[in-house]
Protein backbone atom coordinates (compact mmCIF):
# COMPACT_ATOMS: atom_id res chain seq x y z
CA UNK A 1 0.00 0.00 0.00
CA UNK A 2 1.54 3.28 -1.14
CA UNK A 3 1.03 6.67 0.43
CA UNK A 4 -1.45 9.03 -1.23
CA UNK A 5 -2.30 12.63 -0.41
CA UNK A 6 -5.57 13.23 1.42
CA UNK A 7 -7.50 16.47 1.05
CA UNK A 8 -7.75 18.58 4.17
CA UNK A 9 -8.89 22.09 5.00
CA UNK A 10 -6.96 24.72 6.87
CA UNK A 11 -7.98 24.37 10.48
CA UNK A 12 -8.02 28.00 11.60
CA UNK A 13 -10.84 29.22 9.29
CA UNK A 14 -12.88 26.12 10.05
CA UNK A 15 -12.31 26.63 13.78
CA UNK A 16 -13.58 30.22 13.59
CA UNK A 17 -16.67 29.16 11.66
CA UNK A 18 -17.47 26.38 14.12
CA UNK A 19 -17.03 28.71 17.09
CA UNK A 20 -19.46 31.21 15.50
CA UNK A 21 -21.99 28.43 14.86
CA UNK A 22 -21.63 27.15 18.41
CA UNK A 23 -22.13 30.61 19.91
CA UNK A 24 -25.08 31.23 17.59
CA UNK A 25 -26.71 28.01 18.66
CA UNK A 26 -26.23 28.80 22.34
CA UNK A 27 -27.67 32.30 21.81
CA UNK A 28 -30.72 30.91 20.03
CA UNK A 29 -31.27 28.40 22.82
CA UNK A 30 -31.02 31.21 25.37
CA UNK A 31 -33.53 33.28 23.40
CA UNK A 32 -35.94 30.35 23.17
CA UNK A 33 -35.61 29.77 26.90
CA UNK A 34 -36.42 33.44 27.51
CA UNK A 35 -39.81 33.04 25.80
CA UNK A 36 -39.17 34.46 22.36
CA UNK A 37 -41.59 32.44 20.24
CA UNK A 38 -40.10 33.58 16.94
CA UNK A 39 -36.93 31.59 17.57
CA UNK A 40 -36.74 28.22 15.80
CA UNK A 41 -35.93 25.84 18.64
CA UNK A 42 -35.05 22.74 16.61
CA UNK A 43 -32.44 24.47 14.37
CA UNK A 44 -31.00 26.12 17.46
CA UNK A 45 -30.69 22.77 19.22
CA UNK A 46 -29.05 21.28 16.13
CA UNK A 47 -26.33 23.90 15.81
CA UNK A 48 -24.69 23.06 19.13
CA UNK A 49 -24.07 19.31 18.64
CA UNK A 50 -23.20 19.91 14.98
CA UNK A 51 -20.56 22.45 15.96
CA UNK A 52 -19.14 20.17 18.66
CA UNK A 53 -19.05 17.27 16.23
CA UNK A 54 -17.25 19.44 13.67
CA UNK A 55 -14.61 20.42 16.24
CA UNK A 56 -13.56 16.78 16.53
CA UNK A 57 -12.33 16.95 12.94
CA UNK A 58 -9.54 19.36 13.90
CA UNK A 59 -6.04 17.91 14.34
CA UNK A 60 -2.50 19.23 14.46
CA UNK A 61 0.38 18.13 12.20
CA UNK A 62 3.86 19.07 13.36
CA UNK A 63 6.91 19.58 11.09
CA UNK A 64 8.26 16.28 9.73
CA UNK A 65 5.08 14.47 10.70
CA UNK A 66 2.27 12.82 8.75
CA UNK A 67 -1.30 12.03 9.72
CA UNK A 68 -2.60 8.77 8.27
CA UNK A 69 -6.37 8.96 7.73
CA UNK A 70 -8.72 5.99 7.53
CA UNK A 71 -12.49 5.59 7.40
CA UNK A 72 -13.92 2.44 8.99
CA UNK A 73 -10.69 0.54 8.33
CA UNK A 74 -10.18 1.82 4.76
CA UNK A 75 -7.11 3.92 4.03
CA UNK A 76 -8.09 7.40 2.82
CA UNK A 77 -4.74 9.15 2.51
CA UNK A 78 -2.02 10.95 4.43
CA UNK A 79 -1.72 14.62 5.33
CA UNK A 80 1.67 16.30 5.66
CA UNK A 81 0.47 19.94 5.84
CA UNK A 82 1.99 21.55 8.90
CA UNK A 83 -0.24 23.30 11.39
CA UNK A 84 -3.92 22.95 12.24
CA UNK A 85 -5.95 20.92 9.73
CA UNK A 86 -9.55 19.80 9.45
CA UNK A 87 -10.86 16.61 7.88
CA UNK A 88 -14.00 14.54 8.17
CA UNK A 89 -14.61 13.95 11.90
CA UNK A 90 -15.33 10.29 11.11
CA UNK A 91 -11.77 9.78 9.88
CA UNK A 92 -9.43 7.96 12.25
CA UNK A 93 -6.11 9.79 12.47
CA UNK A 94 -2.76 8.17 13.28
CA UNK A 95 0.35 10.34 13.60
CA UNK A 96 3.63 9.06 12.12
CA UNK A 97 6.96 10.81 12.71
CA UNK A 98 9.03 11.47 9.58
CA UNK A 99 12.07 12.69 11.52
CA UNK A 100 15.52 11.15 11.12
CA UNK A 101 16.18 8.68 13.92
CA UNK A 102 19.13 6.65 15.20
CA UNK A 103 19.13 3.02 16.19
CA UNK A 104 22.14 1.36 17.80
CA UNK A 105 22.09 -2.39 18.00
CA UNK A 106 23.42 -4.24 21.00
CA UNK A 107 26.71 -6.13 20.85
CA UNK A 108 25.83 -9.23 18.86
CA UNK A 109 27.94 -12.39 19.12
CA UNK A 110 28.23 -14.06 15.72
CA UNK A 111 30.67 -16.24 13.77
CA UNK A 112 32.56 -14.67 10.90
CA UNK A 113 33.26 -16.37 7.58
CA UNK A 114 36.17 -18.31 9.12
CA UNK A 115 34.04 -19.53 12.01
CA UNK A 116 35.65 -17.27 14.62
CA UNK A 117 33.27 -15.87 17.26
CA UNK A 118 33.23 -12.08 17.18
CA UNK A 119 31.30 -9.22 18.77
CA UNK A 120 29.78 -6.66 16.44
CA UNK A 121 27.40 -3.70 16.74
CA UNK A 122 26.14 -1.09 14.30
CA UNK A 123 24.47 2.32 14.19
CA UNK A 124 21.62 2.74 11.69
CA UNK A 125 20.24 6.16 10.71
CA UNK A 126 16.73 5.88 9.27
CA UNK A 127 13.44 7.68 8.70
CA UNK A 128 9.94 6.85 7.52
CA UNK A 129 9.56 7.65 3.82
CA UNK A 130 6.06 6.20 3.23
CA UNK A 131 3.63 6.64 6.13
CA UNK A 132 1.01 4.28 4.69
CA UNK A 133 3.46 1.39 4.34
CA UNK A 134 4.84 2.03 7.84
CA UNK A 135 1.36 1.84 9.38
CA UNK A 136 -0.35 -0.86 7.31
CA UNK A 137 2.40 -3.14 5.93
CA UNK A 138 3.91 -4.04 9.31
CA UNK A 139 2.47 -4.36 12.78
CA UNK A 140 5.02 -2.11 14.54
CA UNK A 141 7.50 -0.43 12.25
CA UNK A 142 9.89 0.63 15.04
CA UNK A 143 10.22 -2.95 16.30
CA UNK A 144 10.48 -4.12 12.69
CA UNK A 145 13.44 -1.77 12.11
CA UNK A 146 15.27 -3.09 15.16
CA UNK A 147 14.77 -6.79 14.47
CA UNK A 148 15.50 -6.63 10.74
CA UNK A 149 18.58 -4.44 11.25
CA UNK A 150 20.08 -6.91 13.71
CA UNK A 151 19.23 -9.78 11.36
CA UNK A 152 20.97 -8.04 8.45
CA UNK A 153 23.99 -7.30 10.66
CA UNK A 154 24.31 -10.97 11.58
CA UNK A 155 24.06 -12.04 7.93
CA UNK A 156 26.64 -9.48 6.82
CA UNK A 157 29.11 -10.43 9.58
CA UNK A 158 28.83 -14.11 8.68
CA UNK A 159 29.64 -13.36 5.03
CA UNK A 160 33.05 -11.73 5.70
CA UNK A 161 36.16 -12.73 7.66
CA UNK A 162 37.33 -10.61 10.56
CA UNK A 163 40.86 -10.17 9.20
CA UNK A 164 42.14 -10.00 5.63
CA UNK A 165 44.10 -13.16 4.80
CA UNK A 166 44.30 -12.63 1.05
CA UNK A 167 44.95 -9.50 -0.99
CA UNK A 168 41.78 -8.02 -2.47
CA UNK A 169 39.45 -9.91 -0.14
CA UNK A 170 37.00 -7.76 1.82
CA UNK A 171 37.20 -8.22 5.59
CA UNK A 172 35.36 -6.59 8.46
CA UNK A 173 38.42 -4.88 9.92
CA UNK A 174 40.33 -3.81 6.81
CA UNK A 175 37.44 -2.55 4.64
CA UNK A 176 35.06 -0.52 6.88
CA UNK A 177 33.57 1.53 4.02
CA UNK A 178 32.77 -1.49 1.84
CA UNK A 179 31.32 -3.35 4.83
CA UNK A 180 29.17 -0.37 5.86
CA UNK A 181 27.87 0.02 2.29
CA UNK A 182 27.01 -3.68 2.15
CA UNK A 183 25.26 -3.46 5.50
CA UNK A 184 23.24 -0.42 4.40
CA UNK A 185 22.10 -2.17 1.23
CA UNK A 186 21.00 -5.29 3.11
CA UNK A 187 19.08 -3.31 5.72
CA UNK A 188 17.44 -1.09 3.07
CA UNK A 189 16.27 -4.18 1.19
CA UNK A 190 14.67 -5.62 4.33
CA UNK A 191 13.06 -2.35 5.48
CA UNK A 192 11.77 -1.24 2.08
CA UNK A 193 8.48 -3.06 2.58
CA UNK A 194 7.88 -1.04 5.78
CA UNK A 195 8.26 2.33 4.03
CA UNK A 196 11.54 3.04 5.85
CA UNK A 197 14.53 4.69 4.19
CA UNK A 198 18.01 3.82 5.48
CA UNK A 199 20.20 6.93 5.38
CA UNK A 200 23.38 5.48 6.85
CA UNK A 201 24.64 2.28 8.46
CA UNK A 202 28.08 1.84 9.98
CA UNK A 203 29.89 -0.51 12.34
CA UNK A 204 30.23 0.96 15.85
CA UNK A 205 31.90 -1.99 17.61
CA UNK A 206 34.02 -4.84 16.28
CA UNK A 207 36.14 -7.23 18.33
CA UNK A 208 36.90 -10.90 18.83
CA UNK A 209 34.81 -12.68 21.43
CA UNK A 210 36.47 -12.71 24.90
CA UNK A 211 37.17 -16.46 24.83
CA UNK A 212 39.49 -16.17 21.80
CA UNK A 213 40.59 -12.56 22.05
CA UNK A 214 43.97 -13.36 23.66
CA UNK A 215 44.79 -16.12 21.17
CA UNK A 216 43.87 -13.91 18.22
CA UNK A 217 45.97 -11.08 19.63
CA UNK A 218 48.99 -13.36 19.72
CA UNK A 219 48.22 -14.46 16.18
CA UNK A 220 48.06 -10.86 14.98
CA UNK A 221 51.31 -10.04 16.77
CA UNK A 222 53.02 -13.04 15.20
CA UNK A 223 51.75 -12.06 11.74
CA UNK A 224 53.02 -8.51 12.30
CA UNK A 225 56.45 -9.80 13.36
CA UNK A 226 56.69 -12.07 10.31
CA UNK A 227 55.67 -9.21 8.01
CA UNK A 228 58.23 -6.87 9.60
CA UNK A 229 60.98 -9.47 9.34
CA UNK A 230 60.14 -10.01 5.68
CA UNK A 231 60.62 -6.31 4.97
CA UNK A 232 63.86 -6.25 6.97
CA UNK A 233 65.30 -9.24 5.12
CA UNK A 234 64.27 -7.84 1.73
CA UNK A 235 65.93 -4.53 2.57
CA UNK A 236 69.06 -6.20 3.91
CA UNK A 237 69.48 -8.31 0.76
CA UNK A 238 69.17 -5.17 -1.36
CA UNK A 239 71.80 -3.38 0.73
CA UNK A 240 74.21 -6.34 0.50
CA UNK A 241 73.77 -6.51 -3.27
CA UNK A 242 74.42 -2.77 -3.49
CA UNK A 243 77.53 -3.03 -1.30
CA UNK A 244 79.02 -5.84 -3.39
CA UNK A 245 78.25 -4.00 -6.59
CA UNK A 246 79.90 -0.81 -5.33
CA UNK A 247 83.02 -2.70 -4.18
CA UNK A 248 83.31 -4.45 -7.50
CA UNK A 249 82.72 -1.21 -9.40
CA UNK A 250 85.32 0.80 -7.50
CA UNK A 251 87.87 -2.03 -7.35
CA UNK A 252 88.78 -1.13 -3.78
CA UNK A 253 88.83 -4.77 -2.65
CA UNK A 254 88.80 -7.87 -4.83
CA UNK A 255 86.96 -10.69 -3.13
CA UNK A 256 86.73 -14.29 -4.16
CA UNK A 257 83.51 -16.25 -3.83
CA UNK A 258 84.36 -17.53 -0.34
CA UNK A 259 85.08 -14.06 0.99
CA UNK A 260 81.94 -12.71 -0.69
CA UNK A 261 79.88 -15.37 1.06
CA UNK A 262 81.54 -14.52 4.38
CA UNK A 263 80.88 -10.82 3.85
CA UNK A 264 77.26 -11.44 2.89
CA UNK A 265 76.80 -13.53 6.04
CA UNK A 266 78.23 -10.84 8.28
CA UNK A 267 76.20 -8.05 6.67
CA UNK A 268 72.97 -9.99 6.96
CA UNK A 269 73.68 -10.66 10.65
CA UNK A 270 74.29 -6.98 11.25
CA UNK A 271 71.30 -5.75 9.24
CA UNK A 272 68.76 -8.38 10.30
CA UNK A 273 69.69 -8.70 13.95
CA UNK A 274 67.39 -7.21 16.57
CA UNK A 275 70.34 -6.32 18.82
CA UNK A 276 73.47 -4.31 18.41
CA UNK A 277 76.39 -6.36 17.08
CA UNK A 278 79.89 -6.56 18.60
CA UNK A 279 82.53 -6.21 15.87
CA UNK A 280 85.65 -8.38 15.80
CA UNK A 281 88.67 -6.53 14.45
CA UNK A 282 91.11 -8.59 12.39
CA UNK A 283 94.52 -7.05 12.91
CA UNK A 284 96.31 -9.50 10.66
CA UNK A 285 96.23 -10.24 6.99
CA UNK A 286 92.95 -10.25 5.04
CA UNK A 287 93.56 -13.92 4.25
Automatic annotation (TrEMBL):
Signal peptide: none annotated. It is a single-pass membrane protein. SUPFAM superfamilies: Band 7/SPFH domain. The chain crosses the membrane at residues 12-34, 40-59. GO terms for molecular function: peptidase activity. InterPro entries: Band_7 (IPR001107), Band_7/SPFH_dom_sf (IPR036013). This is Regulator of protease activity HflC (Stomatin/prohibitin superfamily).
